[in-house]
Specification:
The complex is a heterodimer of chains A (65) and B (277). Chain A has 2 helices and 4 strands. Chain A has 65 residues and is an alpha+beta fold. Chain A has a single domain, classed as Alpha-Beta Plaits. A two-stranded antiparallel sheet of chain A has the order 1-4. Chain A has a two-stranded antiparallel ribbon with strand order 2-3. Chain A is globular. A 3-stranded antiparallel sheet of chain B has the order 1-7-6. In chain B, strands 2-5 form a two-stranded antiparallel ribbon. Chain B has a two-stranded antiparallel ribbon with strand order 3-4. In chain B, a hairpin with a 2-residue loop joins strand 3 and strand 4. In chain B, helix 3 packs antiparallel against helix 4, helix 4 packs across helix 6 and helix 6 runs parallel beside helix 10. In chain B, 26% of the residues are buried. Classes of the chains: A alpha+beta (65), B mainly alpha (277). Chains A and B meet through helix 1 and helix 2 of A and helix 10 of B.
């Protein structure tokens, strides 16, 4: 799985960072999304999928290999 | 609550004040104003409130919020409302918009988590084998909360939509301009999605549920609710050994007339602390 984020549409709700903290964080200045791991291990994939459905501004997406 | 002895109404001693303190603190609402505010919220969410009363309460609530906005405009403090007013929003948010945002967050932050605590503890006390599993294995709490959210689905009424074109859904044809009522409790017990959906199983594998809604407008506060519940349920179970009802289960007053389901009161008792040596 490859994780993509578009910080320009992100509203900083933080659902992703709370649901999948190993993969997502928030920018210290404006709270927008920061991807910590663009190719997360299998153990994090379920949480990442849920984070994608949680995002209110559709700022994160995944492509499956 | 613990300082007060070994029995209490869990709703007034814990379930309502804890989420209330949290949301008041985050938004910047004086906790001293909460009683007045909680009474109005309860009336707005009561299905038996007459239309005239509803309008009156709505106007009072709006007045309360406008004063709050004016106060934070004049004297910003370190909270969400001051941030919305004095932040970089361009164009700046109007008073009407601010009142709308704060009203929604304040009501949503009070009623939902509070009822999950009250009804959740009631459900666990009524399923002692599940309570036992959770007490013996506290790390199960994250999954247990998702299961309680699914099993209880406290938002019982609401979520109406009107179709703008005919819709084919799940083998049913819904005509245009029909009102569609989505039942979250029913959806969250869909037998195609869960094994034994009517059973409370705190060790159930985590699966997506609709307790917080779905799509771009799903609950914005759900992570806050999860944090409050994780800490709240963990500490209630840890610090109240032998927790039990002090009335018969059928005498627990249920919120059948409210938009958000739960218990009006939950009289409980627990064992005194071990004497210190």
């Amino acid at each position: 799985m490859t994780v993509h984020a578009n910080a320009t549409v992100c509203i900083g709700a933080g659902h992703c960072a709370l649901r999948a903290p190993a993969v997502f964080d928030q920018n210290e200045d404006d709270g927008t999304v920061v991807v910590l791991d663009t190719e997360p291990d299998a153990e994090h994939e379920e949480a990442v999928r849920e984070a994608v459905t949680l995002c209110p501004s559709r700022a994160i997406s995944i492509t499956e290999r | 609550m613990i300082a007060g002895g070994t029995s209490a109404d869990l709703v007034t001693a814990f379930a309502l004040p804890v989420p209330s303190l949290v949301i008041c603190e985050l938004l910047g609402v004086s906790y001293a104003d909460r009683a007045e505010f909680q009474d109005r919220t309860a009336m707005m969410l009561n299905l038996g409130t007459s239309f005239e009363e509803l309008l009156r309460v709505r106007d009072e609530m709006r007045e309360f919020m406008l004063q709050l906005v004016a106060q934070k405009r004049a004297q910003p403090t370190d909270d969400l409302l001051s941030g919305l007013i004095h932040g970089e929003a361009d164009p700046a948010l109007t008073d009407d918009e601010l009142v709308g945002i704060v009203s929604l967050l304040l009501i949503a932050g009070h009623e939902t988590t509070a009822n999950m605590f009250g009804l959740g503890i009631f459900a666990l006390l009524e399923h002692p084998e599940q309570l036992d599993i959770l007490r013996k294995d506290p790390p199960l709490i994250d999954g247990a909360i998702e299961e309680l959210l699914r099993y209880l689905s406290i938002v019982h009424v609401g979520l109406t939509r009107v179709t703008v074109e005919p819709v084919q859904l799940g083998g049913h044809q819904i005509p245009v301009r029909a009102m569609v009522l989505i039942s979250l409790p029913e959806t969250n017990r869909d037998p195609d999605h869960w094994n034994e959906p009517g059973a409370l199983d705190v060790a159930r594998p985590r699966r997506p549920h609709l307790a917080f809604g779905h799509g771009v407008h799903q609950c914005l506060g759900q992570q806050l609710a999860r944090v409050e519940m994780t800490l709240g349920f963990t500490e209630l179970l840890r610090r109240l050994p032998g927790l039990r009802l002090t009335v018969a289960p059928e005498d627990v007053p249920l919120r059948i007339e409210m938009i958000v389901y739960g218990v009006h009161a939950l009289p409980v008792a627990w064992d005194p602390p071990e004497p210190r040596r």
